Amino acid sequence: MELASRIKGALLGGAIGDAMGFPFEREENVYTDNGIFFPWTYRYRNRFRSLSVPLEAGSYSDDTQMTLMAARSYRSTGVFDAKHFSAELREWLNYSIGAGKASKQAAKSTDRSGKQLFPFYKGYAFAGGNGAVMRALPHAAANSSNYDSCIRNGINDCLMTHGHPHAILMQVYYLSLLFALLNGGMLMDSIHFAEDHVDRFSLDETGIPEEWYEKWNEQTGLCYNAVENAVKDYLLSLCDALSYMIKEQPALNDAFKCLNAIGREKGSAIHSAFAAIYAVKRHEEEGFMKCVYPVSRMKGCDTDTVASLIGTLFGAAYGIESVDKTLISTVQDSDYLMETADRLLASSFSLSSMSERTGSLKRHKANLEELRVGQNLTAFPFGHGIVTGKTISQNTLVVQVRFDIGQSIRLTKTAKQAEPTPADLGR
Question: What's the first-to-final CA gap in the chain, in angstroms?
Answer without folding.
Answer: 48
